[in-house]
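Input/output pair, single chain:
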Amino acid sequence: EIMGVPFIKLFEFWGKYYAFDVNTDEIINISKKLYFYLGKLLKNHDGDINFDDEDTRREYESYNAYGYFSDIKVREIKHPSTDLIEGYLNRKINMMTLQVTQNCNLRCSYCVYSDFYNSGQRTHTGKRMAIETALKAVDFLAEHSLDSEFVSITFYGGEPLLEMNLVKKVVEYAEKVFKGKELRFSVTTNATKLDEEIVEYLVKKDFVLMISLDGPKEIHNTNRRFAADGKGSYDIIVSNLRKIKEKFPDYFRKISISMVIDPQNDFDEINSVFDKESVFSELNVHATVIDDIYSLEKVSYSEEYIAKREYHSFLAYLAELDRINIGEISPIAYEEISDMKSKSKMKGKVKKLSYTDAPGGPCIPGQTRLFVDVDGNLFPCERVSESSPAMIIGNLKEGFFYENARKILNIGALTADECKNCWAFRRCNLCARNADDGSKLSREKKLTYCSGVRERTLYELKREVLFYEAKCHKERNGYGKCSDLSV
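Output:
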C-alpha cells in the first residue's frame, strides 16, 4: 500500500496518462491502471489504497525508487532569499531601468500610462528626469553592484528617445564610473524618433534595441497613434527600420520586436505583418498579450483567436519534427518552441521542495531590474504601479526600504495555506503586482488569480508533453518511449 498521498497532478493527453510530480518538477508517463489508482488515492485522503494488481505495484515502486511520488509539502512559506536580500540589494544589482520621462509622442490605447486604461498605475505627465537624479542613479548602481559581473542600464519612458541628450549624458558618465566592468545599454522605443543621428549613436554604443510593433498597419495604427494628430505610427516605423537595415545591416539583425497582442484581433491578421513587410521577418519577436493587471478594462479572448493561435502552435511543432520548413512558421508561435527548449535544458536540475520554501513567481525585488522613476523613487521593476505605496522599495536619497522589499518577495505568505497545497506551486507566476490593490498587498486580490495560474500551468504541462513527444519522434523516428524516465 502507498504510505502518504503523493504531491502530484494527474492529467490525460492524446490518449496517454501522466503525473506531474511537484517535488521533482517533472512529468511522468504512467500506465492507465496506475493513473486510476493514484486518482483514487488523491480523493481518499484519510486512508491508503491497496494494490490488487502486482504490475501496477511494481510500476509505482519503480518510479518511487527514482524519487517520484513523494508526499513532501512545504510547511512554511518563506522565500529562500529572504534573509539574504540586504546582501543582494547592497552588492549584486545587475540592471537599472531609468524612467527618463513620463511623456510620449504617442497615445497607445492600452499603454501603462493611459489616462483611462491604466489609471490605477500611472498617467502621462510632462515630468522629465533631472540630470542630477540620473547621475545619482548611476552612482547608486555602482555602489550596489560591486559583486555583479556586469551591469546593464535601460532607458525607459514614456518615450525615452525624447530625452536623447539626457541619455547621452548618462552613457558618458556611466562609462567613466564603470570603467573596467562590462557595461550594457538598452532601450525600448516606439521607433518614431529613430533618425540617422540617434541610430548612429545607438550603433556606436552597441545598444540593445527593442521596438514596439503590434502587427500589420491596420492593427498597429488602431492602438498606436500620435498624440498630436491621432495618425497611426506604422509607416514611419517601417521607414526608419528600412534605413537602419540599409546602412547598418549587422546591427539591424540584432534588433528585437516587442509585440503587444490584442486577442480580440484575428491571429492570422496579426501574424501577416511578417509576410506583408519583409523588414520585420528577420527580427526576433517577443509577443505578449495586453497586460490588464492594473487596467479598468480586462482582456478577453475571441474563440477565433484561440483556434488560430492553437493551429499555428501545432504548425510550430510540425516544424520541430522537420515536417514543415521553419521559414513558414509564425515567429510568434515558434517562440513557444524556443521556451520549451530552454526548459528542457533545466530538466533534472531542480531541487526538491524544502519544508521552508516559496512558490515560483517573485524575483528578488530590485536586484534583477531595479526601476528608478523620474523623481528617484525605487521600484522592483517597471511593470509595477508607481502610485502604490506597497510597491516602493526605496529612493536614491534614503536607499532601500528592506522591509517593503521582503514583503514583496514573500507574497506567497499572504495565501500560505492555499500555496502549500497547490500542485502549481513551482510553476506559479504571480508576483506582488498581482496582489497590489493600490495601497497594500491584498490576500483577496492575489487569490483571484490562482485558478488562472492552474489553468495556464496545465496548458504548459501538456505543451511540454507535446514537445517531448515531438523530440522522441525526431530521435527515434517513431512515437515509442524515449530512454529518459520522465518528460
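The mean pLDDT is 90. The two ends are 26 Å apart (CA to CA).
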